[in-house]
Amino acid sequence: xxxxxxxxxxxxxxxxxxxxxxxxxxxxxxxxxxxxxxxxxxxxxxxxxxxxxxxxxxxxxxxxxxxxxxxxxxxxxxxxxxxxxxxxxxxxxxxxxxxxxxxxxxxxxxxxxxxxxxxxxxxxxxxxxxxxxxxxxxxxxxxxxxxxxxxxxxxxxxxxxxxxxxxxxxxxxxxxxxxxxxxxxxxxxxxxxxxxxxxxxxxxxxxxxxxxxxxxxxxxxxxxxxxxxxxxxxxxxxxxxxxxxxxxxxxxxxxxxxxxxxxxxxxxxxxxxxxxxxxxxxxxxxxxxxxxxxxxxxxxxxxxxxxxxxxxxxxxxxxxxxxxxxxxxxxxxxxxxxxxxxxxxxxxxxxxxxxxxxxxxxxxxxxxxxxxxxxxxxxxxxxxxxxxxxxxxxxxxxxxxxxxxxxxxxxxxxxxxxxxxxxxxxxxxxxxxxxxxxxxxxxxxxxxxxxxxxxxxxxxxxxxxxxxxxxxxxxxxxxxxxxxxxxxxxxxxxxxxxxxxxxxxxxxxxxxxxxxxxxxxxxxxxxxxxxxxxxxxxxxxxxxxxxxxxxxxxxxxxxxxxxxxxxxxxxxxxxxxx
Length: 578
Fold this sequence. Notes:
Number of helices: 14
Oligomer: single chain
Strand content: 15-25%
């Protein structure tokens, strides 16, 4: 028999507050299928309605593009409106007051766990955005080998003397840390640190560098050996600071040395470095990731975080936590929500113009374990965003939702632990995120859009392989209420398929005959604190869930929907308590 299969190629980028978008004449695709399968596949679009902060940020990003002469003539005009820009070498975009925009730098910071430390996910976003708007650097880096971890690629650290590496996962941590989540300390002024960059590093040649370090009254004073000269420092009373240096010629290495200039100086903390392009125009993309970290580790162990983020003047901050929380069966979700929300509230006050984006945790199955808290944590992140008027990027839904890891694994987009993705998998996630952001950018800057056809085609082609068979059963892992996902493509699957390889304990069985899952019994709803929602034209479970701050999986489960994509206008749904 033919099975209605659905592929999800467009990432869902949910912005709060969000008015539910009405689509007259909802897109549907009809296919010939079996009698018990749905005949309608809903096609929710990826159009975004911008929040005020995001709109302002993306308008600034447009100005950054306009003020980069090397990019002005690379993009053909796509809009029926004349582009609002001047010729190369001109004064840039004119704002309504008649003065030229001076925006040349757009700063993005992504903070998270091992998915971010590896810099494949964040690195793909950086590559894509810098391809559109210009390369202003890859931000602050830390030689993780000092803390017995890995990365950045192409970086070789050679410490002299005794250095103690720390991270926000370190037990009994006494030395304060910041947004980077890592640090290395020494108690001897004779210690030094040399760092070299080989051809695996994306930009091995540089002339300008900022060093992030301790700056309390008892800290040794840092210097860089020739050919670098000190150009300035900025110290904060809380005990950290930055020092800037410039070399007389491009180089691929630097040596940090220490000086003791007063008797009470007895230690030094090194927290990272930033290689600064000589002509800094475009997007600078920082990534701060710590293996094994949960959001609360950053909050508890890195007291300098908010002050350091404020120092960087970010336009967008992306928090990508949740994977490690998903496997923490003892986590107190109420305490977690309160702590994260309080932190983000303080950050919003410190950086009032900054767009804060929370990404949901991707679907994983570490060592074939089902993450018991994946959906609760993702729902709590959405709740926090709703309360604080932040932005959510639903990476989990973009992948295909609960259970989609099996499909990604089958298509060789994860590594064997089923917890991390390979370079291709992370690249696809980065492309999904970038596509959503670029779609938002073009909607805000509709008079002067950028051509994202190539990116869109790449994403669509890649996601065509990730077909979900919602009639297939799995052994040992329930997909009964998997997220339903939609696309402009349909595909036929054989009635049987195997997920993964012989080492994968999840196998699909035929969805026919005695193996077909029976229809659940029809039950009369007992409402209590629940609500009834009447489906309107153009709505889907995901958008309905946004209205009530309830996951679409919970709505599907509460209403015993065998095919959650097949809801229809006028249908009454019971909305479970949030």
